[in-house]
Amino acid sequence: MVLQLLDPPFQAATSPAAAIRRRTGVGARGFAARWGLLIGFVMLWQVSSTRGWVNPAVFPPLDTIAAALWKGLASGALLDDIAISLRRSGIAFGAAVALGIPLGLFMGQIRAVERALDPVLQLFRQTSALALYPVFILLLGLGEASKVFVIFWATLFPILLATIGGVKQVDRKLIEMARTFGASRLTVFRRVVLPASVPAIFVGLRLSATTALLLLIAAEMIGANKGVGFQVMNAQYNFQIPLMFAAIFLLAGLGLAANIVLVLLQRRLCRWADMTR
Amino acid sequence: MGAHQTFPRGAVRIHGLSKSFTLNGAALPVLRDMNLYIRPGESLAVVGPSGCGKTTLLRVLAGLEAPDGGQVRIDGRPVQGVGTERAVIFQEPRLLPWLTVLGNVAFGFEVRGVPKAEAEAQARQNIRLVGLGEFEDAFPAQLSGGMAQRVGIARALAVQPEILLLDEPLGALDAMTRITMQDELARIWREQQVTMILVTHDLEEAIFLADRVLVMPREKGTPPRLIDIDLPRPRDRSEARFVAMRRRLMAEFGLH
Ligand SMILES: Nc1ncnc2c1ncn2[C@@H]1O[C@H](COP(=O)(O)OP(=O)(O)OP(=O)(O)O)[C@@H](O)[C@H]1O
Ligand SMILES: [Mg+2]
Question: For a disulfide at A228, which of A85, A94, A204, A212, Cβ 3.0-4.6 Å?
Fold first, then answer.
């Protein structure tokens, strides 16, 4: 241990994992700094609700909310809603990824295509997907198709634009270097352009995942009879406030889970980008 | 560089080469009717004032830039685009940040379709050659500038080129590292028997490494001049003849 401490540059160079661990700093101080505010907020909620500082009918104590959540999950009622919500956003997000990344990679490579499509893209992006939802309902009906499509529409653009941006900002000098070694166009794409774009693509993916949940809730509040978003509206309508908050926390949890999955994937794929920063 | 070859390879013949760029609609001649023969295994340094076309010449030789007139022949064959008998070392290391040192050095071979294991075996050998054996698994972000540049040199050497093209490869390094790297370049050139064409700003570097120095003129029209550096190797920077040569080269630039 002492020897390792005496030779820090070598240690840092040979063990990037150790360096990353050190930077994250998982000590007690780090824990307090990271979670302290959240714990404070939770405690404040609980105390102000039980003491009656706020109206407990609007902000029920957290244990009541937890009980409602548990009841909903145990009876399977909320599980159905979660399943259908996950299916809607999953299909939409998956389709946006499947279309957005390849299309973005292609558009980013070819200047003429990108230049021709850019004004259209900018226009579509600036048009709120929610504003278009009535149009989609007219076209696709009030069923699953319009719901999935509005989420797909909203998630496509962050992914597409981030991918195009990622491809366009690839260092030309690296591409030139690969060419001097006799790399073919396809090899340059596979070995240089694609890996260099991955961090930018992940920015788009994380933005899209957030957007997907946002649009999911909006879509489920209009003309749905299942789904977590529907439960929020429905519980409020029936004045089941603890259940309403349970559904809201569930949505937040879904968002967090999606983000964590993406962050972990990003860490695996772009460890190098963290180091360069 | 197989053993079956009966004659050394890596001869470069530049014949009537000219190249101009268009800048704001006007033609800007950079190289004008240039002729030069570079012997196989020769070390040629190219010096000249900023903007005289050194990088342009090197990029034409690399096949990254097409000439307007004339041609370049390598071992008798005209150059068309990039070629696997040439390797370029740029002013910046140009390493792929997502690959380790080993991955970067093997990269040059891998993109030509050489199997990974074979490319890595060759890479390991060249990483040792530039003295970075312990850093195979490090990422570029964990290297110093000099180490990164050595990785770039190892990568170029790994593909066993006949001709090494270097554009101010040590320009970004501090004086101490630069001298160490010059020693390494001299050793590598001697051991690998490659033709080396080195663009540099540093006259001492040119004298230290080159058999001949090509001095490119500031004004277009005056032909470039060639100066033989007939000093014994290994060279000593403080030796009288070395110093005299440096004085002579500086006079060429009107720096007296
Ligand atoms: N792609 C280009 N388009 C237009 N002009 C160019 C281009 N590349 C180089 N030039 C011009 O050609 C001339 C020679 O440039 P070059 O880069 O070869 O100079 P250099 O001798 O390498 O200079 P330095 O020592 O500063 O690196 C310059 O006047 C430059 O403006
Ligand atoms: Mg230059």
Answer: A85
Residue with more model confidence, B252 or B239: B239
Helix boundaries (H) for A193-240:
194-221, 228-237
Sort out which chain A residues have CB atoms less than 8 A from B94's CB and list them: 173-174, 176-177
User: For B94-149, what is each residue's pLDDT tens digit?
Assistant: 999 999 999 999 999 999 889 999 999 999 999 998 889 999 999 999 999 889 99
Which of B28, B65, B198, B199 for mutating ligand 1's site (highest number of atoms within 8 Å of CB)? B28
Residue with tokens 């992914």: A159
B52 three-class SS: coil
Asked whether residue B173 is domain-assigned, the answer is yes
| Atom 5 (ligand 1) nearest CA | B21
Written as six digits, the tokens of A43 are 């405690």
Pocket lined around ligand 1, Cβ cut-off 6 Å:
B 21, 23, 28, 30, 48, 50-56
CA of B50 to the centre of ligand 1 (A): 8
Residue appearing with tokens 């299909």: A91
Q: Specify the pTM.
A: 0.82
Counted domains in chain A = 2
Output the residue whose Cα is nearest ligand 1's atom 16: B53
**At B32, which CATH number?**
3.40.50.300
DSSP assignment of B91-149: SS----TTS-HHHHHHHHHHTTT--HHHHHHHHHHHHHHTT-GGGTT--GGGS-HHHHH
8 Å CB contact between B109 and B118: yes
Peptide bond into B8 cis (omega under 30): no
Q: Domain residues for A121? A: 62-275
Asked whether the beta carbons of residue B97 and residue A273 sit closer than 8 angstroms, the reply is yes
ipTM comes to 0.88
Cβ-based neighbours of B192, under 8 Å, separated by 6 or more: B157, B160
Of residues A12, A177, A188, nearest to B94 (C-beta):
A177
